[in-house]
Give the backbone structure.
Amino acid sequence: MRAFVGFVFLFLVIASVLFGSAGTLHDGRAWVMLAMFFGCAGLITVWLWFRDKALLERRVKAGPGAEPDRIQNVVQGLAGLVFLATFAVPGLDRRFGWSHVPLAVSLAGNGMIAIGFLIVFLTFRENTFTAGTIEIAEGQHVIDSGPYAVVRHPMYAGALVMIAGVPLALGSSWGLIPAALLVPVLVWRLLREETFLAANLPGYDTYRGRVPHRLAPIFW
């Protein structure tokens, strides 16, 4: 029930921000993006419900105020604001006509949303300990298979691909600005998470030696 309520609440918030800033409900690209975004999110939620309810419960416990670390709550709050801005700015772009993105680019943006969610799904399937907060669960151990054999933080990598696709799917080049601002926020969280895991999860330092890249192979 908490997962369902959270899913509906997120949809209402994003739709309100997007259409409220655009000043209209008559935006085909916005509806297609919402269908892609929440269609993918819904499929993952249903999969978790049937295959890994413990992970679903861990994912529901997230957001500002849920973190044991005060600084992480600040990071989560900033991430939430920038995330909503990724929808608000394209809405304003739609209202005032700041940019004009070809339909092919919008379709590619929807493809990026799907690919981002696919990476997140593969991460969830591989690691049942992927909580929405930075903490160590009972029985947790280092996962080094699947996407974790490529980068140490595949869920963040997938999230960035998905977020970068949102403004493109909405037909807004200006929306890439808040999407880009999410990168330093996630990097801040990621680095603090690595410090915590290195200090509290046995074997994590060894894993960092085997998999040197955090978010993207070759680059970082």
Q: What stands out?
A: The chain has a mean pLDDT of 89. The CA atoms of residues 37 and 113 lie 7 Å apart. The helical segments are 2-22, 28-51, 53-60, 70-96, 103-126, 154-169, 176-200, 204-210.
